[in-house]
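Attaching the record inline, Q. Sequence:
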Amino acid sequence: MTRVLLTGGSVLDVASGEARPADVVMEGDRIVAVGTGLDGDEAVDCTGGMLLPGFIDCHTHVCLPATYHEDDPLDMPRSARALAAVPVLRTLLRLGVTTVRDAWGADAGLKLALERGWIEGPDLFVSLRQVCTTGGIGDHWAPLSGSLDLFGDPSMPDPVFCGADGARDVVRRMVRAGADWIKVTATGSMVRGTGVHDVQLTAEEMRALVDEADRQGRRGVMVHAHGARGAELAARAGARSIEHGTWLDESAVAAMAESGSWFVPTLSTTHGDPDRRPAAVEAHRRAVRLAVEAGVPVAMGTDNPVRPHTEVLREIGYLSDAGLGPAGALRAATLDAARLLGLADDRGEVAPGKRADLVLLDGTDLDPARLEDRIRSVWHNGRQVPAAPTGSGRVAGERRGDERPGSGRADGEPPDGERPDGGRPDGERPGSERPGGSERPGAAPPDQRAAPDSSAGGAALNGTTR
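Structure, as predicted:
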């Protein structure tokens, strides 16, 4: 097997935050050596650059392009929904994102297509749908027709349940269809539903969801919760990760620290358009500070397309500015993200035995600002892939952030539950909120978004934004 030598550069130890001169040898899909004076069959000159692990986005929606909210979900054929992910996945990989956890929208078929090499993209772990109680933000319903199935696809099961027995049943349905993770909405969304501070399920229901997910192959539960009470309830039930957590308070982070729940802030949901909701931006930063001070582990997730998928790496900068600092933010996007996903034995570090998922940056500065402009090369499973052009590249059909009407979102259920029927862009009351495993790959060991313009059309479906 060919030994590929990456030589002349530095290697970032994401655990310590220190970069040191070193070579890396890859053989097949593995890193086999890291150090100085190494040799190989082929050499790649990394002079002036820094190697670090491939990035991991723990909360995204790859089947939702930036234009998702302009489309009527009831007019979207199944094939179009799946094909929308192809340019998104390709772009993420070229930006150095080598692993993603999809927070709803992608099915097991898309994961299979990636595994078989039919399409290009990162490793994908799927949750299928966002599980919710009757009337929750994933319960699509219209007065004249009743319940609506936006997917019309047996591989995307009905996510609505009621009661503890219903909670166990919905987990089994998701697992049967190939879910790696169970995504649950514990609160409303930023602009729809019953409010970001209202809890949409009972403690008994949440405990049943977590327990059943663990019984079904030790899968983790990721919980969309903007408000503190929803996050606290989820943490006390043993959820693996809390998504968004915009308004976490001391009691919520204490529960998360005690239970070992992770925090996936998805700061892009508020920071991508900070002038739209300045109070939410400050609350979100405070939530991150409280979590860090309490010892709650943080992992990177974007909730894109709340912002264009091409802006995925800006989340690392937001985390740095919110209190993690450059080294901590890079660790949250690599090693700590791998730990959250139960993949730390396999990836997340530049170390012998780990997956050869690597990013070569120009320079050795840890400053995460405009990382996309510094990408020189990307390797996924030991294979070099084209990097996105410097300053680049949009996903096909995707506008740049400053070209998008409103501030965009990512859920067909929206990225986390918007209501196209005129929901208010509160974020405080009355508005809406939104509410993660085990140590096995793809299993476990929380979803907010920037609200789209209230003027941006969309089907008037409860809990949906398009």
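The chain has eleven helices and 21 strands. Confidence is low (pLDDT under 50) at residues 390-414, 417-466.

More tomorrow.
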